[in-house]
Amino acid sequence: MPPDHARCPSFEDHDHAMDEPMEAKLRHNGEACTAANRFYVHEAMARSFAGRLAERSRDLVVGRGVDESVTLGPLIDRTAVTS
C-alpha cells in the first residue's frame, strides 16, 4: 500500500471543516477501503484538531441503525455472529 493511501488533508478552518474528516474516517463505520487512515494537519493546529476530533468522536452514539438517535450503527448483527 503506498504511503499516501487514504489520506485526508485538513485546513486551517477545521472547526467548520470537521465534518469532512469525520465522514472520511467513519463512512460505512470505517470499513470502506477509502476510509481515511491518516490526517495531515499543520503542526500549529495539530493539538486543536486532535481535540476536536476526539470531542466529535465522543459525541457519537453507537447502537441499532434503525434508532434515529444513533449516529454509528453496528458492523454485524447477532445472526451473522451465530451463522
Automatic annotation (TrEMBL):
Domain Aldehyde dehydrogenase residues, every copy: 13-81
Q: Does the keyword Cell membrane apply?
A: no
Q: Which Pfam families match?
A: Aldedh (PF00171)
* InterPro entries assigned to the protein according to its UniProt record, in alphabetical order: Ald_DH/histidinol_DH (IPR016161), Ald_DH_C (IPR016163), Ald_DH_CS_CYS (IPR016160), Aldehyde_DH_dom (IPR015590), Aldehyde_DH_Superfamily (IPR050740)
Keywords, comma-separated and alphabetical: Oxidoreductase
Domain of life of the source: Bacteria
This protein is called Aldehyde dehydrogenase family protein
The organism of origin for this protein: Micromonospora sicca
